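Can anyone check this?
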Amino acid sequence: MKTPALFLLDEEHWENVYGVEERRRCEILVSTPLRFQTPQSIRERPEDLAQVEVIFSGWGMPRCDADFLAAAPRLKAIFYAAGSVRGFVTDVLWKRGIIVSSSNNALAVAVAEFTLAQILLSLKSMWRQASDMRALRRPLRHLSPGIYGSVVGLVSVGAIARSLISLLRPFRLRVIAYDPYLPEEVARALGIELVSLEKLFEISDVVSLHTPWLPETEGLIRGHHLARMRTGATLINTARGAVVNEPEMIEVLKGRPDLSALLDVTCAEPLPSESPLYDLPNVILTPHIAGTLHRECCRLGAMAVDEFERYLRGEPLLGQVREEMMATSA
């Protein structure tokens, strides 16, 4: 018997996330015609949730509070074609035993690919070389660490960092990490070395941040960490701006023009026009583009449908999020 299902997400993401192929696959598996609802339309017509057993969602999923779940008495699973589920999960949802699966692993691939590119270019000091060549209108090669034998430090080893580690394997790099929750045996299996946060900043040629934004990680990276960095080292942040103490970072970068910071995220987004980060020559800012863009978004929808197929077959879900995981995940 096919499963009653509903698509529920922001309209702007509907076609990007659930493309032609993903919809075709769903049509075969669900019992009702493909219906698309937005957070606004479902508030106006909550009765449309009455028979739904499965929700395919994405950015814009409404919060699953008592009222929402009362309107969806048959709901058994939510397949969320995006990353963090914090915006919609509630205690009521967990008590109901509703299965939640996130496409965070698929999202992680896009961020890891972006970060790989930044790491390789940073080890060639590409940003500084390009900036100086434009300003001086002549070659001025800076001493750069290069790729072979360099040290890459990862702060936190979640889904993105694990995907990145696999992408880094073809390169002769030493990969170290700081993650107080990662067992030593898992680190060895990944081929990385666990070190203290201080040592990581001291010996890395590139430091890449992958820390989730939690109360205990806010401001985790301080000025004294950055001040320890090797001459010519680079900081890459594709995690969240709040995990870095931004004022202290700015002061260090002002006094250490040899350092580079590639920031895809900042404490405030968009960054205020008066921020000193715009004016620092050793800072490269990008507008939170490390995640999925355009066609990449269909990878998230494809994983959501993959998970639904596993669910129907009674197989373990690769992206299932459980209540006990929320304490250490973004």
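Reply from J.R.: I decoded it. The chain has 13 helices and 13 strands.
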